[in-house]
Amino acid sequence: MSSDVLLEEFEVLESIYPSELTKISDTIIQIDVEPEDTEDGVDPLKLTLEVQYPPEYPDVLPNLSLHAIEGEGEIDDSERDSLLKDLQTMGEENVGIAMTFTLVSHLREQLSVLVKTRAELKRKEEMEKERLAIEAEEARTRGTPVTPESFRAWKIKFDREQALARKTREEEKLRALTPKEREENKRIGGRLSGRQLFERNKNLEDDNLMEEDAVSVDVSQYERTTRDDEEEEEDGITFSDSD
């Protein structure tokens, strides 16, 4: 490689990339490269392309490497490998001529593609999150579908809770009784007689002592009906002629 040829290429590159190019040595340069296009909502991306020119350049490819610039975005290994592979393919198509400008231009295009791919991926992730959130809300408002298995499990739990509630009510009833009443209640099988309940509470207003299925009786109605029956019997008395 003629040093004059490489020197001439450096002069051209410095005129095109006055602030982006850094000359490391007579055979190594670095150029900061940004994508041609940007996408809203995507982190900025700016890489440094390092080019090492072998003695046989431009008849052979230069050695290329990519480095992320701190604070200018990150790049993972798979993305870096893909970009370098594209640069190598482009370089092979330009063997024999000065190719650095072509490589940098191609890298800018590929970075634009990468940025768009990242933006599309981000949009899909946001759409997926939104879809999952909607499905979760629908499931919450719709409730859990009932299956034979889930119904049996619910029925077992419900019956257990009801049995516990009945037991608690019975215990509360027993605690309200006197020792004598407890003994009597135990003797007759845990059920109070109507007389015991009446004596316990003549107005039958204590819900803790009344049976769940008990029916309230209006005594005055009973007394009035009895009097009516007696009056009807008196009205119906007949006397014989012999009297």
Could you describe the 3D structure shown?
By secondary structure, the protein is an alpha+beta fold. It folds into 2 domains: 3-121, Ubiquitin Conjugating Enzyme (Roll); 148-212, no CATH class. Helices cover 55% and strands 9% of the residues. The chain contains 7 helices and 4 strands; from the N terminus they run αββββαααααα. The protein has helices at 3-16, 77-92, 100-142, 148-175, 179-187, 194-200, 219-235; strands at residues 21-23, 28-33, 47-52, 63-68. A 4-stranded antiparallel beta sheet has the order 1-2-3-4, covered by helices on one side. Strand 1 (21-23) and strand 2 (28-33) form a beta hairpin. Helix 2 packs antiparallel against helix 3. The longest helix has 43 residues, at 100-142. It is rod-shaped. This is RWD-domain-containing protein. Residues 206-215, 228-243 have a biased composition (Acidic residues). Residues 104-142 form a coiled coil. Residues 169-243 are annotated as: Disordered. Residues 169-187 have a biased composition (Basic and acidic residues).
